Q: What sequence folds into this?
């Protein structure tokens, strides 16, 4: 996903188990870009963003 989003401030992705992942962005602009570009999919799976 980092290759798709191209975050300016970087991103940390953690596997939380049970098919859940935590995306931690280090710059507010990156969060705004990802949230405004929804819906996102990965390997034909919908990413659910709060």
A:
């Amino acid at each position: 996903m980092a290759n798709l989003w191209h975050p300016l401030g970087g991103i940390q992705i953690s596997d939380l188990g049970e098919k859940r992942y935590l995306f931690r962005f280090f710059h507010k602009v990156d969060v705004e870009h990802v949230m405004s570009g929804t819906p996102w999919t990965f390997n034909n799976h919908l990413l659910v963003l709060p």
Notes: The beta strands are 11-17, 20-25, 40-42, 45-47.
